[in-house]
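Hey, I was hoping to borrow your eyes for a little while. There's a protein on my desk that I can't quite get my head around. The fold is given in discrete form, as structure tokens running alongside the sequence. I'd be grateful if you could look everything over and explain what you see. Here's the protein in full, and shout if anything looks odd to you:
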Amino acid sequence: MPPLIKNYTFGKLVLGDKIYEKDLIITPTEIHSPWWRKEGHYLRWEDIEPWVKGVEILIVGSGYYGVLKVDDDVEKNARKMGVEEVIVCPTAEACGKYNSLVGVKKVVAAFHLTC
């Protein structure tokens, strides 16, 4: 099981004992950082697809102020791949949801750390 998120502030996420200052994706087995999208503040399916297979929950932290927009195809395609629930919310809230679900469900979480 990946470590829990200890703290999140604008531009900085503490996961276990490691500090991340670039956007990241947490899967049940790996942490990918930096995580880049084709369009910085717009999440498309191809930006997340490689990490969604075999998971039950997809969490997207949309930034401190919720600036990251998520294309409708993300949820549609995730559900086609068997994802039970797609949660999109500001990153602080998404961190709490991640901590409550990881270890209970197979979770992939994608976090935009700034705006």
About this structure: The domain at 5-111 is CATH 3.40.1230.10 (Hypothetical Protein Mth938; Chain: A,). The CA atoms of residues 3 and 16 lie 5 Å apart.
